[in-house]
Design a protein that fits this description.
The chain is an all-alpha fold and 331 residues long. The chain has helices at residues 3-22, 30-40, 47-60, 72-81, 85-99, 109-119, 125-142, 152-160, 165-179, 186-197, 203-219, 230-237, 243-258, 270-290, 295-329. The longest helix has 35 residues, at 295-329.
Length: 331
């Protein structure tokens, strides 16, 4: 395994273990996601700062706020990553207030609020909140039975992008129509289509790259998940690198994870593990792209960062739902 990727994997496992030790009663689904957020930012988990952010959240939001829902650990992590968590939360609550004018409250709106504060300036918050709703309505018009509250995450990313409404509608539709015959879940294909829309290139080329990567991994005995995992497959497919090298990296990281506690028997399943491997490989390539100085390299890196953010939030949202369902089933 390459040195940079090996270091990233070690950091990921260390981050996961610190988070789990600090917040021992949270969902198993969420520990790797939160660890990946730290790892994406080239940071080590700070237990004391996370505890501080937990208290900050407790002080600043109401008892029944969605910031304290099933994704609370994600909110704490996003605050802890920031240099100024107090200002971060203040901004997120400002965005959240703007979004509530256009959306019913849900566990997804805090995620959307965090995304917008990560990628936009305060003076644009209100306009982006309004455009997020408009794009969400366009999604719902095309797919009324598939579009639900979780799609507000992708609507926000698309609202922040430089794409016009017409481009978003056409590109998403082309990707969806191309990919739907290949996968069973319409929801997953819609999420994948949104991620690919955020990336450069023609719809046909992007979809073929995603399908080729999926099939090449399958030929080697690695079946990528076809539910919420598909969003991260789209990010992997758009990495500006040789596909064989990307596949080799994914397999090496998956093999590494398979030997780690929590990924063995009765731990996280193989499809989720492969998705986590893909997320780590993506992070490594983004880090390398950020070290390049050509405009095309910078543009590619920014597209991947935006798409990775969308994919991560899809994972967070789906993990939160799974955790909530498991909890309800146990009562």
């Amino acid at each position: 395994m390459r040195n940079t990727l090996s270091a990233l994997c070690d950091n990921f496992i260390e981050n996961r273990d610190i988070i789990k030790a600090t917040f021992g009663w949270e969902s198993t689904y969420l520990y790797p996601v939160c660890a990946a957020l730290f790892t994406d930012n080239q940071l080590k988990s700070d237990a004391n700062k996370m505890k501080y952010c937990k208290d900050l959240l407790k002080r600043q939001v109401g008892l029944f706020s969605n910031f304290k829902g099933t994704g609370k650990l994600v909110m704490i992590t996003m605050l802890a990553i920031d240099r100024e968590p107090e200002q971060k939360l203040k901004n997120a609550l400002e965005v959240y207030s703007a979004l509530k004018k256009y959306f019913f409250t849900s566990q997804y709106l805090p995620l959307v609020s965090m995304i917008i504060t990560n990628l936009a300036k305060p003076e644009h918050y209100v306009a982006i909140a309004e455009r997020t709703r408009h794009i969400y309505e366009l999604m719902k018009k095309d797919h009324p039975f598939l579009t639900s509250a979780e799609d507000s995450v992708f609507a926000a990313l698309l609202a922040i992008s430089d794409l016009t409404d017409e481009q978003i509608v056409k590109e998403t539709k082309r990707c969806y129509d191309f990919l739907k015959p290949e996968f069973f879940s319409g929801n997953a294909v819609q999420s994948l289509s949104h991620v690919l829309t955020l990336c450069d290139g023609t719809a046909e080329d992007k979809c073929r790259r995603a399908l080729t990567l999926f099939n090449d991994l399958k030929k080697k005995g690695y079946r990528y998940g076809t539910n919420y995992e598909l969003a991260t497959l789209g990010v992997l497919a758009m990495i500006p690198a040789d596909r064989a090298a990307v596949i080799n990296d994914i397999i090496e990281v998956d093999n590494f994870l398979s030997a780690q506690k929590g990924y063995r028997l009765f731990g996280i399943n193989r499809k989720q593990r492969l998705m986590h491997a893909g997320m780590l490989v993506t992070s490594d390539y983004i880090d390398q792209s950020n070290n390049l100085t050509t405009s095309s390299a910078v543009s590619a890196a920014m597209s991947l960062i935006a798409a990775q953010q969308a994919a991560m939030c899809a994972v967070i949202a789906s993990s939160s739902v799974a955790a909530s369902s498991a909890s309800s089933g146990g009562n």
